[in-house]
């Protein structure tokens, strides 16, 4: 009987903990979706609403000489670039999947993507977002993206 009680309590606890995580994952995904909605529209105010004031932003890629580069960007430069999008240009960052991990006030989101500019494939890669739950509002505190041209399957993480 004790064994059954322990198992039952374990199941209930697991269910409650999981049910609390699922809505948080939905809220986090909504923040990421809102970020990309603003990017696609060229609306920096929408993007800004998803960002923490102290966000750190970086991009990594391999240059033509084969050297691996890590470049820093400021929040202001990111938002100015989005606001400068021409009305005639279309951006589509097609997210291929979401891998969301949550622990308390911290969340991590991994999103492999393909980027299309004016309907034509431009590049692919992955985004890594770190989010902070700022008193019930999830905000992006760190964003690094990796950009690759050409064969997008060539550098996928091998399991």
Break the fold down into its secondary structure elements and pairings:
Blueprint: H1 2-41, H2 44-48, E1 51-62, E2 68-73, H3 75-83, E3 91-95, E4 99-103, E5 106-117, E6 120-133, E7 138-148
Parallel strand pairs: 1-7
Antiparallel strand pairs: 1-2, 3-5, 4-5, 5-6, 6-7
Throw out a few tags for this protein:
about 160 residues; alpha+beta; Nuclear Transport Factor 2, Chain: A; 3 helices; globular
Explain this structure to me?
It is a single chain. The chain has 3 helices and 7 strands, in the order ααββαβββββ. With 159 residues, the protein is α+β, with helices and mostly antiparallel strands. It has a single domain, classed as Nuclear Transport Factor 2, Chain: A, CATH 3.10.450.50. Strands 1, 2, 3, 4, 5, 6 and 7 form a 7-stranded mixed β-sheet that branches. Strand 1 and strand 2 form a beta hairpin. It is globular, with a radius of gyration of 19 Å.
* Helix amount: 25-40%
Quote the CATH topology.
Answer: Nuclear Transport Factor 2, Chain: A
* Major beta-sheet overview: 7 strands, mixed
What is the count of helical runs? 3
Distance between the termini: 42 Å
Structural class: alpha+beta
Rg, rounded, reads: 19 Å
By CATH reckoning, the class would read Alpha Beta
User: How do the SSEs run, as a string of H and E?
Assistant: HHEEHEEEEE
Number of strands: 7
CATH A-level architecture: Roll
The outline comes out as: globular
What is the arithmetic mean of pLDDT? 88
Low-confidence stretches: 10-19
The number of domains: 1
């Amino acid at each position: 009987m004790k064994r059954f009680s322990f198992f039952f309590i374990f199941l209930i606890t697991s269910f409650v903990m999981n049910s609390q995580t699922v809505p948080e994952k939905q809220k986090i995904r909504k923040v990421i979706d809102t970020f990309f909605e603003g990017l696609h529209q060229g609306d920096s105010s929408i993007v800004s609403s998803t960002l923490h004031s102290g966000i750190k932003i970086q991009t990594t890629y391999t240059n033509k000489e084969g050297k691996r580069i890590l470049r820093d960007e400021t929040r202001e430069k990111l938002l100015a670039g989005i606001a400068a999008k021409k009305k005639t240009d279309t951006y589509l960052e097609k997210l291929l999947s979401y891998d969301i991990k949550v622990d308390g006030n911290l969340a991590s989101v991994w999103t492999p993507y393909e980027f299309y500019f004016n309907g034509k494939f431009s590049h692919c890669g992955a985004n890594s977002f770190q989010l902070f739950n700022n008193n019930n509002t999830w905000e992006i505190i760190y964003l690094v993206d990796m950009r690759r041209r050409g064969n997008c399957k060539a550098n996928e993480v091998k399991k």
